[in-house]
Amino acid sequence: MLFFSFFKTLTDQVITVELKNDLCITGTLKSVDQFLNIRLDGITVEDPERHPHMMAVKNCFIRGSVVRYVRMGARSVDTTLLEDATRRGEFMVRVLKGLRVD
Amino acid sequence: MDSQSPEPDTAVNGSTDAGPLAGSPSDFLKNIVGKRVKVRVGNGIDYHGLLTCLDGYMNVALEETEEWVNGHRVTTYGDCFLRGNNVLYISAMEDL
Amino acid sequence: MEQVAAGTISEPLDLVKLSLGERVFIKLRGDRTLTGNLHAYDAHMNLVLSQVEENIHIVDVGEDGTAAPPRIERRGFEMLFIRGDSVILVSPLLE
Question: Biased composition, Polar residues: where in the chain (chain B) (predicted)?
Answer without folding.
Answer: 1-16
